[in-house]
Each structure stands twice: as C-alpha cells, then as structure tokens.
Amino acid sequence: MHWCFTLMFSLQAAVQGTNDSSVVSKVSAAAQGYFQDVFLQHFVCKVARRAPLINRGYYVRWRAVDHCVRRFLHITENCPKRQILSLGAGFDSLYFRLCAGEALDRAVVFEVDFPDVTRRKAALINSNITLRGMLDSYLPSPTGPVCVSSAQYRLLGVDVREESQVEEALSAAGMDWVAPTLILSEVVLTYMETQWSDTVISWTAKLLPQSLFVMYEQIHPHDPFGRIMQDHFLKLNSTLHALRQYPDTAAQRHRFLDKGWEQCVCLDMNLFYLGLVPEEERSRVESLEPFDEYEEWHQKCSHYFILTASQGSLMAQALLPHAPVSPVPSTCPSWSPTALSVQTVPVCLEGLGMASSLVSPGQVLLTGGCSRGGRGPVTRILLRGQEGWRAVSVEPALDLGVRLYHTVTTLPGGGIMVYGGRSSPLNPTRGLFRVILDLGSPLDEEQDTAKLWVDQMVCTGDPPLARWRHTATVVSHKGKDFVFVFGGKNESEAALGGGYFLSVDQQHWTEIPVEGAAPTARHSHSACSHQGGVVVFGGLDGRGVPLGDTVVLRPSERGFCWDRIEVQPPPVPRYSHTAHVIGGRLVVVGGVWLHSDGVPGGVIINLTTCSSVEFRLDTTSVPWPLMLHSFCSELTDPEGPELLLMGGGGNCFSFGTHFNLQPITVDLTPVLG
Ligand SMILES: C[S@@+](CC[C@H](N)C(=O)[O-])C[C@H]1O[C@@H](n2cnc3c(N)ncnc32)[C@H](O)[C@@H]1O
Ligand SMILES: *[C@@H]1O[C@H](CO)[C@@H](O)[C@H](O)[C@H]1NC(C)=O
Ligand SMILES: *[C@@H]1O[C@H](CO)[C@@H](O)[C@H](O)[C@H]1NC(C)=O
Ligand SMILES: *[C@@H]1O[C@H](CO)[C@@H](O)[C@H](O)[C@H]1NC(C)=O
Ligand SMILES: *[C@@H]1O[C@H](CO)[C@@H](O)[C@H](O)[C@H]1NC(C)=O
Ligand SMILES: *[C@@H]1O[C@H](CO)[C@@H](O)[C@H](O)[C@H]1NC(C)=O
C-alpha cells in the first residue's frame, strides 16, 4: 500500500497545485490585503484577482475560522498538549500559517482529506524547500494513509465518512484522544449525505471528551438567494446536503446538542462580522477596494454561519459568545396573517439600480441601471393601456450616460429631473438633467416610441457633492416647490448626511433653515413626499448597519423641522427597499434586512397612530426567485391599490447573477381596506 510517496514525484499535475476555486479566491483576498497568508499561494496554479465582493466573502470566512482557532490556542495556552484536527482540509495552509506565527507551541495539527487530495498536497509541500523546512523531524516515507508525518503536522488520506478507518488512522498517526482538541470543518460536512455528517458529529463528541468543534457552512436554502446558491452547487455536482435538514442556526445548534455536544453557539456571518470583528478592523477591510454591493454582501453573510460546540469545561470557555455586542437590534417582524398577492406583468424589462418616476397615472419613466451581458443603459416608458402594460422605447435615444442608483423626480409644473448616480463605484455621474416627455397621442395603443427632450439644468447656488443611492423628493415651503436631496454615498464616504434644497422655479440651490435632530447619515433609504415635507425610512448607515427609523421633515414657520417618530412595533431595519405614502400610510416594499426570518415583504406604517404591520408577499404566481432589492417601484394611481415593481436582483456571490425579468404588481387592497 503506497498511498502517497511512490506516486508523488510522477504526478506533474499535483506539483502544479490546485484550481480549487475557494483556494484561488482566498489567495486573491490575501493578495488584496484582506488577511495575511504567504503560504496559500504555493498551493494554487491559477492566480486570479476576484471581485471585491468575493474577496470580502472569503475574508469573513477566513476571519471566523481564524477567530475560533486563536481562541482555542489561547484557552489551551497552559495545557501540556493540544491538537487541531482539520476534516476535509483540502489545500488549507493553516499549519504553515500558525507555525510561521509561532502560535503552535505544544500543538499538533492533523489534516484529513481524500487520498488523492492529500497525496497532491504532500507533493506540493515536498516540492518547496521553505514548506518542507517547516516540518520538524520529517519522516520521509510514512506508510498507510499517512502522507506526511512530522512532529507537529500529520496529513492523512482517508474518507471522513469511514469512522473506524479514520479512528484507526488518527490513532496510528499519534492522536491523543484525551488532549484538548479543536475539530475544524470548513465547508466540508455539507458535501456528504446528512447521515454521514451526523455520524462525524457524533463520533467526534464520543471520542474527544475535551474538544471544540468549529464549523463553517451554508444555511437558509429556501429564500431567493438560498435557492440560487443551492442550484449553483447542484450544477457543480457538489450538492449541499446538511442545509435541507438543518436550514438555520437554531437547527444547527440543536443538531450538535442532539449528537452529544454539551454546548453550542451558532452565529450567522452578519452577526459575526458586525458583532465580533472590531470596528477598526471592519473599517480597514472596507477601505481596501471600491465597493458598492451591500445587498449581495449582507445576503451572502446571512447564508453562512460559524458554529462552535464544546465538550468539557475548559473548552466551554472557547465558545463564541451567544449574543455578541451587535449594532443591529434584534427586532422580530410583527407578521400580519395576510400575504399580499403578487402578479407578473408580461413585459420584458430587467435592470439593477434603475430609477423610475410616475409621470402621470399609467405612465412611468425608467432610466439607467445595468442589465445582463453588460448591456448599456436604456431609457423606457411603461404605459398602461386597455391591454395592460407595455414598454415603449424612446426616440431619439436618450443619452444620460451610464447611471446606476440615481434618482428621477417628476417636478411640479412639468418636466422630470434626473440626478446623481454612478458608473463604477469610483465614478459618480455628474450633471443634472431635465427631461420632457412627449407621448404623442396617449390613446394610441399601437404607438411604440415616445419623444423625449433632455436639457442640462444649469443651477445657481451651492450644489451638493456628486452622490448615488440618495433620494430626491419634492417638498414645498410657503407655496414654493423644492427638490430635497438627502443622503447617499460617494467614493470616499460610506454614508452622507445633510439635506439640500433645489428651488424648482429658480433652479437655485437654496439654504433653508432646518431645525431638530437630523437623521443619521445613510444611503439606500426611502424618502417620500408627505404633507409638504418628506418621510425618510430605513437605509444603511456609515458603519454598514441597516436602519429601521422613521423620520419626518415637516414644513415649519422658518423652514423645516426634523421629527423622529417612534413606530410600534418597531419595523425590522432594512435598506434598498422602496416606499410610497398612500392616504396617511407609509407603504415600504422589499429591501434587504439582517433578520433570519425570510426576506422582507412589505411593512405598512400608519403615520397617525405610528403603528406598523409586516406583510409577506405571496409570490406563488410569479417566476421564482424574485429578488426585491436594487429595484424601483411606482404607485400607478396616486390613490390606487396597486404598486408596480420594476427591475431588481443582484450578483449572488460567486453563484451567478439574478435579474427579475419582468415587472410585477403588488395588490395593496388588504392594507388599504
Ligand atoms: C470546499 S473544500 C474545503 C477545503 C478546506 N476546508 C478549506 O476551507 O479551504 C472541501 C474539502 O472537503 C474534502 N472532502 C469532502 N468530502 C470528504 C470526505 N468524505 N472525506 C474526506 N475529505 C472530504 C474535499 O476533498 C475538499 O478538499
Ligand atoms: C487549471 O485550470 C486551467 C484553466 O482554467 C487549466 O489550463 C489547467 O490545466 C488547470 N490545472 C490543473 C492542475 O488542474
Ligand atoms: C516556497 O513557498 C514559499 C511560501 O509560499 C514561497 O515564498 C517560495 O517562493 C516557494 N519556493 C519555491 C522554490 O517555490
Ligand atoms: C455532473 O455529473 C453529470 C452526470 O454524472 C455529468 O454529466 C456532468 O458533466 C457533471 N457536471 C460537472 C460540472 O462536473
Ligand atoms: C465625499 O463626501 C464627503 C462628505 O461630504 C466629502 O468630504 C468628500 O470630499 C467627498 N469625496 C469625494 C471624492 O468627492
Ligand atoms: C391609522 O390607525 C387608526 C387607528 O387604528 C385608524 O383609525 C386610521 O384610519 C388609520 N389611518 C390610516 C391612514 O390607515
């Protein structure tokens, strides 16, 4: 039985390293400065620079595992002996990293993976003098499943599912079953049928009385992002198994307690990142690369968890804290028993970060955004006729530049203002435009183009700095109309505060006194016209924490006044939603929240009584998945019972990009009744 060494030097492919996408992604993140690992690059043959979202995703994974490993090493500092057992270690560089950091005093690292993987890993280690030099009292020709055996590092080729073989191999490799041991499973157990992973969780509990199990993998398979995630792994022939039976952190925790572990703490990655990564470290990481994919980042983090389970009183001290100090309040949605019905509108229309405005009832202008295949920005009009909605293109082609996350505001007295937005996250789109729409005969059902006139608006006064993910809302003061620009972000500032007033008839940026405590700086919030002022709801603050506050800007004698209203029960914080005021109620739809209970549907806030109710959307009759973020919406009739939702979707980490391909309508009859 020559598991490893006889084959080693003839395996050219092995010496070339792996193309394993998770290792390639970790190397990319390390190269961009997210974390330090000089050894990992030795195990890859393909060096690729990944998108910032992927780098962040692998950073948080690395950081969570590193956090638990360091905590274990700290707790066991005075133990005469401690061990790390990495199951499905793949090409992880953990041993070399800890060894170089002199963190492995009196510790032995055991790694287990399939024989062909450990064989290749052994070959790679052996081919590099630095790596080989880091193995003390290196045994050149070990036997059986042992591919590498040194004083502090043992690499074993066995199938983790074969309990007795693993136990035998570990014993042969010198595992001390009573020494404090950390068992690591980083995205491994979910690849085997749940009966096998359950067995692993049981036998480790049984055999290692002083131990800490650390696991990182996926949860929430059933929401739109979860579904795309599952489909991705299915296509790669590496089905995710465990999350069907254990779909959330509570189920994972009970799983470990049921399988014999004494204590268990499981946190989703949003809670880990916001609660256990110090703010300075988060700022460092967030400033490494231009970034504007908040929705995707939070969704990725809500679909992975870090779990620690302990045996023995010493190991209990190494558990993650049950309730980390998180800046996100743990509000639960107050669900209404009624779900709002959602229908498809048979028009092809897709885009992320588009902006819309209701020009008049049944007429919606849509600009900018990006769509599949990097197709450029398209300006379109949606018209409602007797046959339902239809899309009408615009002539001459309207060039507003590449624009995402901008605003389109219908001005009192005619015209539509297009403001802000960005092309790349380093390039805000400058310029302010006024668009005038000529639909010809609106009753002509055959008509398939509309005319638009576009003027650059030249405004006097002090304009706000270029921004995106802001709002631009019509307010009025003493009979004069203004566009109120609030919040957003720019290249260097994570969230902008302040408010700016543009006089509509004078085209002048005007200083108007505003009293009261201004709301926290934010972006991706909503701001709706209401009684001459605006209602601001939600958004994401400068620390990357979703907000759930409702703040009203009211006209006053001298100017305006901010007035925060305390809504009961408090709505779950969210951002990237849309909102409309309908007859004294604020209707908020979609968005992203960090709550584990599904995705947001709609929350209705009664602005008189300041009470709120959450509604789910009944999406059974629309194409699935429906992703309601980075979309736009219009109330097609000012008093109407129906909302039209257009575009939306996002890049689902490395699992593919999803676009909602058709608009949908949400029937608001149950909430307006
Ligand atoms: C996604 S990789 C993760 C590798 C490593 N834990 C990391 O995070 O970088 C999953 C690893 O688990 C290993 N694996 C999966 N099923 C296994 C089994 N039944 N026995 C041993 N290893 C297994 C695979 O070979 C692969 O190396
Ligand atoms: C890695 O992938 C590249 C193409 O993506 C391929 O040409 C190469 O042979 C692969 N190497 C190994 C060792 O699998
Ligand atoms: C060996 O690996 C180390 C660490 O990854 C790297 O710095 C060094 O360049 C490698 N040496 C060779 C000869 O590949
Ligand atoms: C997955 O397995 C099927 C059937 O065994 C095979 O046809 C397909 O090529 C595999 N796909 C990948 C991505 O390996
Ligand atoms: C972004 O906004 C901040 C705050 O208003 C400002 O100080 C900064 O100069 C802006 N950054 C750029 C690149 O314009
Ligand atoms: C707000 O709630 C009060 C008390 O339930 C109700 O009388 C009023 O009609 C509601 N207003 C709106 C606009 O729904």
TrEMBL record:
It is an enzyme of class 2 (transferase). The keyword S-adenosyl-L-methionine applies. Its EC number is 2.1.1.290, 2.3.1.231. The keyword Methyltransferase applies. GO terms for biological process: tRNA methylation; wybutosine biosynthetic process. This is tRNA wybutosine-synthesizing protein 4. Residues 1-17 form the signal peptide. Belongs to the methyltransferase superfamily. LCMT family. GO terms for molecular function: tRNA methyltransferase activity. Interacts with RNF144B/IBRDC2. Pathway: tRNA modification; wybutosine-tRNA(Phe) biosynthesis. It catalyses: 7-[(3S)-(3-amino-3-methoxycarbonyl)propyl]wyosine(37) in tRNA(Phe) + S-adenosyl-L-methionine + CO2 = wybutosine(37) in tRNA(Phe) + S-adenosyl-L-homocysteine + 2 H(+); 7-[(3S)-3-amino-3-carboxypropyl]wyosine(37) in tRNA(Phe) + S-adenosyl-L-methionine = 7-[(3S)-(3-amino-3-methoxycarbonyl)propyl]wyosine(37) in tRNA(Phe) + S-adenosyl-L-homocysteine. Keywords: Methyltransferase, S-adenosyl-L-methionine, Signal, Transferase, tRNA processing. Probable S-adenosyl-L-methionine-dependent methyltransferase that acts as a component of the wybutosine biosynthesis pathway. Wybutosine is a hyper modified guanosine with a tricyclic base found at the 3'-position adjacent to the anticodon of eukaryotic phenylalanine tRNA. May methylate the carboxyl group of leucine residues to form alpha-leucine ester residues.
